[in-house]
Amino acid sequence: xxxxxxxxxxxxxxxxxxxxxxxxxxxxxxxxxxxxxxxxxxxxxxxxxxxxxxxxxxxxxxxxxxxxxxxxxxxxxxxxxxxxxxxxxxxxxxxxxxxxxxxxxxxxxxxxxxxxxxxxxxxxxxxxxxxxxxxxxxxxxx
Length: 142
Description:
By secondary structure, this protein is α+β, with helices and mostly antiparallel strands. The protein is built from 2 helices and 8 strands, in the order αβββββαβββ. A hairpin with a 4-residue loop joins strand 7 (124-127) and strand 8 (132-138).
């Protein structure tokens, strides 16, 4: 095998590996974007759930939301959070790309499953000044 053929084969393997990694990165990015927004004009807010011995605390970031429109509903199995945005936001505003320029968002909406020991009948909701919403869900007494 000549030196030229060896270099060509190595470059081809490198190119194939780069293409696989780029394809994987795009697939992961598409999955994240698909899960975080909906064509109906809603976008999923960022949130975190913490567990304590007697309660769960859900912190939801509602940046640019009109918090006066906030609705938090709970069933035995799900927590639903909704709020209008202060203004319509485009896909390109959020993701910094010209792709999806015609996709716009008008409100936040997210449904998350509640743990089996959560007591949705006694939740409390507080909006902090920085538009972080704190939802306290007590645990059922055993």
